[in-house]
Amino acid sequence: MRTIDIMKKLTGLTILLALLSCDRGEGTPDPIDEINTLTVSETQIPFFFEGGSATFEVGSEAGSWEIITDSAVKWITLSQLSGETGTSGIGITANRNNSIISRATTLLVMAADSSEQEIRITQEGALYRNFNTDPLDPDSTGMEHTAMEIAAQITAGWNAGNTLEAIGGETNWGNPQITQALIHLVKENGFNAVRLPCSWDQYTDQESGEISEAWMNRVKEVIQYCINEDVYVILNIHWDGGWLENNCTEDKVREVNAKQRALWQQIATHLRDFDEHLLFAGANEPNVDDRYEMNVLESYHQSFVDAVRSTGGKNSYRVLVVQGPSTDVEKTNNLMSSLPTDVAVDRMMAEIHYYTPYQFCLMGEDADWGKMFYYWGADYHSTTDPDRNCSWGEESGVDYLMGLMNTKFIAEGIPVILGEYCVAKRASLTGDALELHLASRAYYLEYVTRKARENGILPFYWDAGGMGNMGSALFNRNNNTVYDQRALDSVMAGIGK
User: 176: cis peptide before it, omega within 30°?
Assistant: First the structure.
């Protein structure tokens, strides 16, 4: 470089420093104020592992601005990468993070003659890894029928209660293991659908979320027993320690949705080769009392549906069952405004349970708010034991509640599963009291079954296997014989058999 050029540069620098350091009079422009202002409304944007959307604003006095991103980062999408003078709203969407490792990237916002701005984007890792590692293309083979068409094929359903859902193991609540012979007995006596209440959490590694393969295979074996008898099967996640059912609250949304997704990805993948005779149900009796809790439950239902559908194959078309709040008829009528979004068309059912009145169906001892009822129905009241007669929830109540479900769902083309109903036998009664109780119990079972069918609702009797006082067994599972012929006949009379 020539000496004269160096001197020119030094002279210019000296003048600039002098201008910056001297006291300027009124009206003298400040060179710093002449730099164009560039602002961003957010400097940090965090995402949960589920992903989602957020917005931020870029404000610029420059003629144009742009956002520089790391080309290797594919998990975020921006609605625009450049703009002009003024304020611009930018949308940012993050994909679900299927890794348990958190991730981050930085957006660099730049404009001419302006200080660059940075926005740090972070996303936490998933609570469980992605178990949908081998999704298949949709396969409609053996999956041709809609939910309503399958509902038309189901006549009567039976619950293998207190067995696969038993905490501590399949036989831990007093029932033997389910066998092919038992399912044959059930089919032989008029039932062509079986509901399998099932526990999963106790067979799951609590850190990884992985279900024991041995348990998965056992459940698959029991389903195959049903398929061998040409019986429809509803498999659920039952109470399961209450991890979902007792946590329909906003503070548990992320945790429960993560587990719901992880478990159903595994269950659906392991069982996706079964045809349309297998239906999945996302929960059992989720405890919900208001609209806020219902919003949470709806997110759990959506996670269930999305997880199953994502595995592909026959699961792309499988009929799925979602539960009303507490599976209570009136709560369901008042709070359940819609079903989950589903990519499959007409492949969903709703579920309610019916133990009304509770004092007659399940109540085992008197309470300060009311006594047990022994006798149900207008023609079955006791004249000698009147305080044990039902004072509510009799025939007109059944008519009303079943009608609500018909109007809300059946009339709209949505099948309804009556997933549980029964009356515990009060075998401790004696003499005329016992006979009147058993007669009213038989009448209840026939009436509720018949009214469910008349309203298009599919009844599944709750058989928990108990054959003593307060038991509900239809079958003796120890020797595979009919145990309660009177109750069985009542259910079948309600079906029309």
Answer: no
SS3 366: coil
| pLDDT the model gives residue 148 | 98
Residues of the chain scoring pLDDT < 50: 1-34
Residue 9: per-residue pLDDT: 36
The bridge status of strand 416-421 relative to strand 348-354 is parallel
The reply to whether 144 belongs to the active site is: no
Tokens 């194959």 locate to 313
Return the axis-axis angle of helices 213-228 and 253-271, rounded to nearest 10°.
60
Q: What is the pLDDT of residues 209-245, one digit of tens each?
A: 999 999 999 999 999 999 999 999 999 999 999 999 9
Query: Are 189 and 482 spatial neighbours (Cβ–Cβ below 8 Å)?
Result: yes
Collapsing DSSP to helix, strand or coil, 321 comes out as strand
Q: How high does pLDDT run on average in the chain?
A: 93
Residues 45, 63: Cα–Cα separation, whole Å = 26
Asked if residues 87 and 135 have their Cβ atoms less than 8 Å apart, the reply is no
The pLDDT value given to residue 120: 97
Q: Which is the catalytic residue, given 50, 351, 394, 420?
A: 420
Domains and CATH numbers, the chain: 33-123 (2.60.40.10), 147-495 (3.20.20.80)
pLDDT for the residue 29: 44
188 classed as catalytic: no
Catalytic annotation, pick one of 285, 293, 298, 394: 285
Q: Convert the pLDDT of each residue in 8-51 to its tens digit.
A: 333 333 333 333 344 444 444 444 444 789 999 999 999 998 89
Tokens of 164: 């696969």
Closest among 399, 492, 401 to 445, alpha carbons compared = 492
- Report the candidate in 166, 158, 156 with the shortest Cα–Cα distance to residue 492: 156
pTM score, whole prediction: 0.86
Tokens of 9: 């540069």
